[in-house]
Write a structure and sequence with these properties.
This protein has 175 residues and is α+β, with helices and mostly antiparallel strands. The structure holds fe (ii) ion.
């Protein structure tokens, strides 16, 4: 048996404001929405993947004050360095504060949705390195410059190696 990640459901307060962000800025499609039970709170299902009816569910039932504080972050992988740049531009045009962090194995953008839920969008680098590692990276670099910077910054950290070495070790560890 293998547990495969499918979705996360968040409790939220204000559907319209948050949908503007998840649909308008992040590009999710609403797959369904409706009351959870007769007179129950609304649930909104969203996805960017036809294989997942919902990757995120939002239940409009949050009552606590202040920014959301029990979720650290949801994280989304993108396929290319250009995708990271595109997301950075979208977030900037939506006036979202971004913290760009590199973990050696990923170039990430960290930010929050309008209710303070943490989010990450990242692209895998070709390397593994013992975690945790966090160094702020310069999002103005191009792909080649960014990868050269990652290698230089993390090459002397513990267990820095090509990602494929890490993956084959991981598989063998479980034999
Ligand atoms: Fe993360």
């Amino acid at each position: 048996m293998k547990l495969k990640w499918s979705h996360t459901v968040l409790n939220i307060k204000n559907a319209e404001k948050i949908l503007d962000f998840y649909v308008g800025t992040l590009g999710f499609q609403i797959s369904d929405r409706g009351p959870l039970a007769k007179n129950g709170p609304e649930i909104i299902f969203m996805s960017q993947d036809p294989n997942e009816h919902h990757q995120i569910g939002l239940v409009v039932s949050r009552e606590d004050e202040g920014p959301s504080n029990s979720l650290n972050h949801l994280s989304f992988r993108v396929d290319s360095f250009d995708d990271v740049k595109t997301m950075k531009n979208k977030l900037e045009s939506a006036n979202v504060d971004i913290l760009p962090l590199c973990h050696g194995n990923a170039l990430s953008l960290y930010f929050k949705d309008p209710e303070g839920n943490g989010l990450e969008v990242f692209w895998d680098t070709p390397w593994h390195v013992t975690q945790p590692q966090t160094v702020v990276w310069d999002t103005n670099l191009n792909e080649k410059e960014a990868l050269a910077w990652v290698e230089e910054t993390f090459k002397d950290k513990p267990n820095f190696t090509k990602l494929e070495n890490y993956k084959s070790d991981f598989v063998n560890r479980n034999l």
